[in-house]
Design a protein that fits this description.
By secondary structure, the protein is mainly alpha-helical. It contains nine helices and no strands. The longest helix is centred in the C-terminal third of the chain and has 31 residues. One of its GO terms (molecular function) is amino acid transmembrane transporter activity.
């Protein structure tokens, strides 16, 4: 089982990483903006599923086989960068559509894939989750429970932020400009991944 110190560090790391903007959070906010709070809530399950798989794969990889394929992390960063760049272009083009349109900002499959390719999964599996979580089932299940209990409300907050923008409660922010800004964030994130993969 995990020690109290490991639990505290794990929880703090999860919160710090998940509250920062990134591909998944940007898509959650955009979905809240376009679809409203209630219609976007199913995306939380897609996010949790994507992170569960990504963290598990990266954790096992770093725990057992990191020395065998040293080129794999760079290749996966490059693939993630291309996918995130594609999301950024799509979001920029969709920004002219007013909230309430029938066009959706994203769907569970899009969010699942974006989360699966999100480098935060690598960060969680490689550094934030303790190594014991990938060696013993009780520790793994407990660590994932902590993750889910913290990730769900943070995802809800990002959706609620987007929904507040769409409803006009944050009238000083224009939704189209926020979406364009989010697109730029995704684009910069993609470029940073390319840089990390090449260096």
């Amino acid at each position: 089982m995990l020690s109290a110190t490991e639990i505290a560090l794990l929880a703090a790391g999860i919160v710090v990483v998940l509250v920062t903007p990134g591909p998944t959070n940007t898509l959650l906010a955009a979905a809240g903006l376009r679809d409203g709070l209630h219609r976007a809530l199913p995306l939380i399950a897609a996010e949790l599923s994507g992170y569960l798989i990504a963290i598990s794969v990266w954790g096992r990889f770093f725990a057992h086989a990191a020395n065998a394929w040293p080129w794999l992390p760079s290749l996966l960063r490059a693939v993630a960068a291309l996918y995130i760049a594609w999301l950024a272009v799509g979001m920029w083009r969709a920004a002219v559509v007013l909230p309430g349109s029938t066009q959706r900002a994203g769907n569970p499959r899009t969010l699942f894939v974006a989360t699966l390719l999100n480098p935060k999964g690598l960060l969680f599996g490689g550094t934030i989750f303790p190594a014991a979580a990938f060696m013993h089932w009780p520790a793994y299940l407990f660590a994932m429970l902590i993750f889910a209990c913290l990730a769900a409300p943070i995802a809800f907050a990002w959706i609620a932020f987007g929904a507040a923008l769409g409803s006009g409660r944050l009238g000083w922010l224009e939704p189209a400009k926020v979406q364009r800004g989010a697109s730029i964030v995704l684009g910069v994130f993609s470029l940073s991944l390319v840089w990390a993969a090449l260096h």
